[in-house]
Design goal:
This protein is mostly helical and 55 residues long. Helices cover 51% and strands 0% of the residues. The model has no long low-confidence stretch (mean pLDDT 80).
Length: 55
């Protein structure tokens, strides 16, 4: 029978990995860049359509 500490957990319990590694910042930067490009395209097309008379 395992022993438990005050929190009710075994003292030698290892925590699960979160999945983060050295590539996480690159993925986040790439996602931000794609979001920025998309927002810029929507903004530019909206201004272009309003300047063309709403078409």
């Amino acid at each position: 029978m395992p022993t438990h500490d005050r929190t009710g957990q075994s003292p030698n319990t290892e925590l699960a990995e979160t999945g983060g590694d050295s590539t996480t910042p690159y993925i986040a930067i790439a996602g931000a860049a794609v979001l920025s490009i998309g927002a810029t395209a929507v903004f530019a097309l909206g201004r272009r359509r309003s300047a063309a008379g709403g078409r």
